[in-house]
Write a structure and sequence with these properties.
globular
Length: 318
C-alpha cells in the first residue's frame, strides 16, 4: 500500500489506547492527532506516542491533520453531542459501540449520517475475534438451519464495580442502558449468524426499572432459531452456542472456539494476535486497510449495525 492511512482519535480512554497500540505497529497507518476533554488521560498517550499531536477541538483535529480516518472512543452519554460535530467533516469514522445511549439516539446519528452522506463503521471487536471468524467460516460452509443459543449476563452492580477497577466511571444513564452498551456484543452474534428476516419473537415482561432474568426465543424466515437467555440478577459467563446438522460449536469464553468431538478435524487456531493486543483489533485493522484499498472487507457499516440495534429494541422494548 503506497499511501499511508492518516488516523486521528477522539477520546483518550482505554479503548483509544488499545486502537493506538495496534495501529502504531502497522506501517500502513500514521498516527496524526487526538482530541479529548480529559488532559489527564491524554498526557500519557502523548508521552508514549510522540508523533500524536494534541488538538483543542474536533474542528482543529480535522482541519490541521486532514485525517483519512477518525476513531471515536467516548462515553455512551457523549455520543449524541460529539458525533454531530464529527459528522460535519468528510473523514471516514470508526466509532466504538454503542453510538448513543439508546435506540432513539443511535437512530438520530444514523439518520444524520445519511443526510450528510458520511461513511461510518462501528467497532465491534468480538466480530473480529479469531474464534468468531473461524466459527463464521465453518458455519458458512453448511446450508442447513442454525440453532443459536446465547447466554448474556448484565448484572448492573457487578458491571459498575468492574468498570471502576479499571478506572472507568459509568454514568447512571449508561448503567441503565447496558443492553445497548454491553449486551450488544452478544446480540450482534444474532446479526452475524442468523439469515433472513425476523418473523417471530416471544414476549417477555422485562422492565428497565426493575430488570430480571429472562429468556426470549426468535425465529427467522430462513428457519434459523435463537434462544437468548439474559441474566440481570445472577452472574453467568458469556456464551454463544450454535448447532447445525449433527454438530455443535461453542464460544466459551468468546475468545475460544470449542468444537464437538464428532466434527471433522480442522486446523488449530493460532490465538497469538488476540493475546498480544486487545482481541479482534488486529483483524479489524486489516479490514480497515482493505477498505482504503477499495477491496471487499468485513467492517461493520452503520447500516449493518442498525440490524443489531433493532434486535436489541425488540428484545428489551426500550
Amino acid at each position: 500500500m503506497k499511501k499511508k492511512i492518516k488516523v486521528s482519535f477522539v477520546g483518550a480512554g482505554n479503548m483509544s489506547s488499545e486502537h493506538i497500540k495496534v495501529l502504531n505497529r502497522n506501517k500502513n497507518f500514521v498516527l496524526a492527532g487526538i482530541y479529548s476533554r480529559s488532559q489527564k488521560k491524554i498526557r500519557p498517550l502523548k508521552k508514549k506516542y510522540g508523533s500524536l499531536k494534541i488538538y483543542s477541538s474536533i474542528e482543529d483535529l480535522y482541519h490541521k491533520t486532514k485525517s483519512d480516518l477518525v476513531i471515536i472512543s467516548i462515553s455512551e452519554d457523549q455520543y449524541k453531542k460529539i458525533m454531530k460535530k464529527i459528522i460535519e467533516f468528510p473523514w471516514v469514522c470508526l466509532a466504538e459501540k454503542p453510538l448513543g445511549l439508546n435506540s432513539r439516539e443511535i437512530r438520530q446519528i444514523y439518520e444524520l449520517s445519511r443526510i450528510k452522506k458520511r461513511k461510518i463503521f462501528i467497532s465491534l471487536n468480538r466480530r473480529f475475534y479469531l474464534s468468531t471468524t473461524k466459527l463464521k467460516k465453518i458455519v458458512d460452509n453448511f446450508s442447513s438451519k442454525r440453532k443459536l443459543k446465547i447466554i448474556d449476563c448484565q448484572n448492573r452492580q457487578r458491571f459498575e464495580e468492574g468498570a471502576k477497577k479499571i478506572g472507568i466511571i459509568k454514568s447512571a444513564k449508561s448503567i441503565k442502558y447496558l443492553m445497548y452498551s454491553n449486551s450488544v456484543h452478544l446480540i450482534d452474534y444474532i446479526s452475524l449468524f442468523c439469515r433472513g428476516n425476523l418473523i417471530k419473537i416471544s414476549s417477555n415482561n422485562w422492565r428497565i426499572s426493575k430488570p430480571k432474568d429472562f429468556t426470549v426465543k426468535m425465529k427467522f424466515s430462513s428457519g434459523d432459531e435463537v434462544v437468548y437467555v439474559a441474566y440481570w440478577t445472577k452472574f453467568k459467563k458469556w456464551e454463544v452456542q450454535i448447532r447445525f446438522d449433527k454438530y455443535s460449536l461453542k464460544l466459551k469464553p468468546l475468545e475460544k472456539l470449542n468444537i464437538s468431538n464428532n466434527f471433522p478435524e480442522i486446523k488449530k487456531i493460532n490465538y497469538i494476535k488476540d493475546k498480544n493486543f486487545k482481541p479482534g483489533l488486529v483483524n479489524q485493522s486489516i479490514e480497515i486497510k482493505k477498505f482504503f484499498q477499495k477491496k471487499n472487507n468485513k467492517l461493520v457499516s452503520i447500516e449493518n449495525y442498525m440490524r443489531t440495534v433493532n434486535f436489541i429494541k425488540k428484545i428489551y422494548r426500550v
